[in-house]
Specification:
8-stranded antiparallel barrel, elongated, single chain, two-stranded antiparallel ribbon, Hypothetical Protein Pfu-838710-001, alpha+beta, 24% helix
Length: 212
């Protein structure tokens, strides 16, 4: 793999290591020192997002950002690294048929929809609040981008319904490059925790601690 992979670009499905905890200061320091220069646009990014959590599945990751819905689905774990693929992308107001055929099946719940052709974001979130198996969670992200061993890396601070966590990750199409990065920055043996798992642990949907 060469270092032409650009942060934010589309590529073949990547594998990812990510973890969440109170802090990863040492690994963050090493990540910053080992990183090659990255585009200024990813030096620091902020976003406000809403994740839709379902008690009935951990394989579909649904988030809403800037009025757009993005659902990714879990494919496989290889050598401890997870691979996720895009499942659907939608924009609000969203069509009733899209909710019935693509969104609700991803939640793996039964939902009755009012008889209308389109749903605004507010109307959709109202449907989520009325479904006991679902929960909308507000997430603010402050992310700092790096590139180490040709892997796209990130350190960030995340507010999950106001609870502040640190997150760190490395992702690539090449498994060996990620594993080398984990060794180089000192993350060997740290639990791989994706966003779904982290949010569920914070809100009590899963009774399990974070990495530290």
């Amino acid at each position: 793999m060469n270092n032409t992979l650009q942060i934010g670009e589309e590529s073949k499905p990547r594998f990812e290591f990510r973890s969440f905890g109170q802090q990863f200061d040492s690994a963050h320091y090493r990540m910053g020192r080992l990183s090659v220069p990255v585009p200024e646009a990813v030096w620091e990014r902020h976003s406000d997002e809403t994740y839709i959590l379902s008690r009935t599945n951990d394989v579909n990751n649904t988030k809403i950002r800037n009025g757009k819905m993005d659902i990714k689905t879990y494919i496989q774990t290889v050598d401890g690294l997870e691979q996720w693929n895009p499942l659907m992308k939608g924009e609000f107001p969203i069509q009733r048929d899209t909710l019935i055929n693509e969104v609700i099946p991803a939640f793996q719940v039964d939902m009755d929809l009012p008889q209308q052709d389109h749903f605004t974001l507010e109307a959709f979130l109202g449907l989520v609040r009325a479904q006991p198996a679902l929960q909308a969670v507000r997430v603010h992200k402050q992310r700092f981008g790096y590139m180490v061993n040709d892997t796209i890396c990130e350190y960030g601070y995340v507010l999950i319904n106001g609870a502040r966590l640190a997150t760190i990750n490395s992702e690539s199409t090449e498994l060996a490059d990620i594993h080398k990065t984990l060794i180089d920055v000192g993350l060997e043996g740290v639990e791989n925790i994706n966003y779904l798992q982290a949010i569920k642990r914070v809100i009590g949907m899963i009774d399990k601690p974070l990495a530290n």
